Amino acid sequence: MNVRLAILLLCMVGVGAGCATRPAAPSSRNLLSAEVQEAIALFKVRDPGIQAFFDRSYGYAVLPRIGKAAWVVGGAFGRGEVFAGGTKVGYCSVSQASVGFSFGGQYFREIIFFRDKLDLNRFTMGDFAFSGQVNAVAVTAGAAAKSDYQDGMAVFIAPDAGLMIDVSIAGQKFEYDPTYVLREEPKTVLP
Fold it and tell me: Looking at the predicted structure, is the pLDDT value of residue 186 above 80?
């Protein structure tokens, strides 16, 4: 039984890992950008105090739609955009696997604020996973005023749709893809 669960979990993580961090088509990137702006507006409506995090954080990542499903073994995946100083600097994706008493499905939105440049750099330097000490705060009126950075990050979530019962061990793993990749121009050889 445990072997089957482990195999199923690895398959689910593989499916999430196979999804590209940056949407391939320009129309998909435009749609993601619109969803990110909608998510930011929703967070500000649900808790106007979150504006303080936008104002004082060095950067932030917005994941406007993370889908999560489980039947004992679960998984989640979502894409978003990363900002520094209010300017988009790249794309990110999150994948999550869980094992435990959980079933159902849901969508949620997530914003991760980075206190300073070093914290954002840790996120963008490659594969990044949350440590067990980082807690997400559900966005409700006044929640941001009671929140602070933990390990250089402040994480807020907004449940969107669905129903899920979840008593499991889970970890989120993030990948980052910069908006612009500098490529070396080919050198011209003159005769």
Answer: no
**For residues 89-113, average pLDDT:** 84
- From the list 100, 83, 101, the residue with the least C-alpha distance to 91 is 83
Number of domains in the chain: 1
Q: What Å distances lie between residue 141 and 43, 44, 137, 147, CA to CA?
A: 10, 9, 12, 12
Mean pLDDT across the chain: 77
Give the residue-averaged pLDDT of 104-125: 90
Q: How far is CA 22 from CA 42, 44, 85, 94, 138, in A?
A: 23, 26, 21, 12, 27
Could you list the residue range(s) of the whole structural domain that residue 20 is in?
2-178
How crowded is residue 31: how many other Cβ atoms within 10 Å of its Cβ? 13
**Domain-located, residue 82:** yes
61 membership: H or E segment, kind and range: strand 59-84
* Residue at 20 is within a domain: yes
The answer to the question of residue 156 being in a domain is yes
Mean pLDDT of 31-49: 94
Please tell me the pTM assigned to this model.
0.76
Task: Give the integer Cα–Cα distance in Å for 123 and 110.
Answer: 15
Is the residue at 43 inside a domain? Answer: yes
